Amino acid sequence: MKYPYGNCQHCGERLYAHVDGGYQCHNCHQRYPEDELDGATA
Ligand SMILES: [Zn+2]
């Protein structure tokens, strides 16, 4: 299932770019690897 880039799958909060790459939700601290989020666009 794909989910909108920029929104947490768990709580719906917006995601922020993480210093180590990928993204992180500041609300529940769920991490999202960039390759996991971005599968369609190059
Ligand atoms: Zn969240």
Number of helices: 1
The helix fraction, in percent, is under 10%
Q: Are there runs of 5+ residues with pLDDT below 50, and where?
A: none
- The radius of gyration over CA amounts to 10 Å
What bound compounds does this protein have? zinc ion
Largest sheet data: 3 strands, antiparallel
Mean pLDDT: 79
Overall structural class, as computed from helix and strand content, comes to mainly beta
Gist of the model:
By secondary structure, this protein is mainly beta. It has one helix and three strands, in the order βββα. InterPro entries: C1-like_sf.
What does this structure look like?
By secondary structure, this protein is mostly beta strands. It has one domain. Strands 1-2-3 form a 3-stranded antiparallel β-sheet. A hairpin with a 5-residue loop joins strand 1 and strand 2. The radius of gyration is 10 Å and the shape is globular. The two termini are 19 Å apart. The structure holds zinc ion. Zinc ion binds next to loops.
List keywords for this structure.
C1-like_sf, 42 residues, 3-stranded antiparallel sheet, 3 strands, mainly beta, binds zinc ion, 19% strand
Q: How do the helices and strands line up, and which of them pair or pack?
A:
Blueprint (H helix, E strand, L loop, with lengths): L14 E3 L5 E3 L5 E2 L1 H4 L5
Antiparallel strand pairs: 1-2, 2-3
Bound molecules: zinc ion (ZN).
